[in-house]
């Protein structure tokens, strides 16, 4: 059954005094985004390229909001072990693509920009997880406002297409926490995760450098090891099916740790190959992230 959402009120009508300006971690004002989640047609403006084989067949498909809701509700049912079906995994990254954003902005008559679009889509995908697990609908307006406040601090340069944040990976981590934790704990985790990324961004923008312990950071050492393995197998086209399988087999053989967040999957993978079979997109994103970290901090 699809959730019935009430009419949205502009911030000036909200009784709880939500300000039109919110201060971010750098104490610089950020304009409140217009939450398009409540606009007609926005929730169904989702796309999926799961069947796009790049040879002119398959292509993009539209994905109704109701499908997203039902898929997530099914994944939380007792006895369901694998989370949303693989098709689901390509919906968020495709919907957050620049072309999907441009398409919506081009046909909308509202005075909005790409930040409104991206933050509204993040709101949508985070909120439907909460609704599917905790069945809150919009009866608890506190959760809706809390999520919006968490997202409001995100500057535009942390959003696609320039973002260095792997939003799909963060979403799957959020989903994993939702499977095993309560509502308050999940919201606290999301606030800390996004807050840490905003703080890091402001620190870099101000030319600040993080203090490091002597010796390589544990996370950076994993990036170095992963990069060395990819280089040894040939760095070009490493994400293709044949090569990434070899990469994962080598990562298993050399006992390179996987993402701790994967332990929260309903059926946690025991090896990189296990993860590759069930969640190829997330495996590819993690390896790609470690390669980028290795390049960003050479010799660190």
How would you describe what is shown here?
With 300 residues, this protein is mainly alpha-helical. Helix content is 49%, strand content 3%. The protein has 2 domains: 19-205, no CATH class; 218-296, no CATH class. It has helices spanning 65-75, 91-95, 98-107, 114-134, 141-152, 167-180, 183-205, 218-232, 241-253, 272-278, 280-296; strands at 21-23, 29-31, 47-48, 61-62. The strands form 2 sheets. The chain has a two-stranded antiparallel sheet. A two-stranded antiparallel ribbon has the order 3-4. Strand 1 and strand 2 form a beta hairpin. Helix 4 packs parallel to helix 6, helix 5 (141-152) runs parallel beside helix 7 (183-205) and helix 10 packs across helix 11. The radius of gyration is 20 Å and the shape is globular.
The whole-number mean of residue pLDDT values reads 80
**Total number of β-strand segments?**
4
Strand order of the largest sheet: 1-2
Distance between the termini: 52 Å
- Tell me roughly what share of residues is in helical segments: 40-55%
| Number of helices, counting only DSSP H or I runs of 4 residues or more | 11
The figure for the number of domains is 2
- What is the helix/strand order? EEEEHHHHHHHHHHH
| Alpha-beta classification | mainly alpha
- Characterize the biggest β-sheet: 2 strands, antiparallel
Overall geometry comes to: globular
What is the CA-atom radius of gyration, in angstroms? Answer: 20 Å
């Amino acid at each position: 059954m699809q959730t019935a959402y009430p009419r949205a009120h502009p911030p000036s009508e909200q009784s709880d005094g939500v300000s039109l300006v919110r201060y971010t971690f750098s104490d610089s004002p950020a304009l409140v985004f217009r939450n398009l989640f409540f606009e007609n047609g926005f929730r169904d403006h989702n796309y999926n390229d799961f069947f796009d084989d790049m040879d002119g067949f398959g292509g993009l498909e539209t994905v109704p909001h109701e499908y997203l809701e039902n898929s997530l509700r099914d994944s939380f049912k007792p006895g369901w072990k694998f989370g949303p079906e693989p098709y689901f995994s390509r919906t968020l990254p495709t919907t957050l693509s620049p072309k999907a954003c441009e398409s919506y902005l081009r046909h909308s008559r509202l005075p909005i920009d790409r930040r409104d679009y991206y933050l509204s889509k993040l709101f949508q995908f985070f909120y439907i997880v909460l609704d599917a697990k905790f069945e809150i609908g919009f009866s608890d307006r506190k959760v809706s406002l809390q999520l919006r406040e968490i997202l409001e601090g995100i500057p535009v340069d942390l959003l696609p297409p320039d973002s260095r944040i792997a939003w799909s990976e963060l979403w799957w981590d959020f989903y994993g926490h939702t499977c095993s934790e309560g509502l308050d704990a999940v919201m606290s985790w999301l606030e800390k995760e996004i807050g840490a990324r905003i703080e890091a961004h402001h620190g870099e923008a101000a030319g600040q450098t993080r203090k490091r312990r002597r010796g390589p950071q544990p996370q950076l050492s994993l990036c170095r090891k992963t990069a060395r393995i990819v280089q040894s197998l040939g760095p070009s086209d490493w994400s293709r099916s044949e090569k990434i399988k070899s990469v994962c087999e080598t990562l298993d053989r050399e006992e390179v740790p996987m993402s701790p967040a994967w332990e929260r999957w309903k059926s946690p993978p025991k090896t990189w190959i296990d993860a590759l079979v069930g969640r190829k997109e997330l495996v590819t994103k993690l390896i790609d992230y470690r390669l980028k970290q290795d390049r960003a901090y050479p010799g660190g």
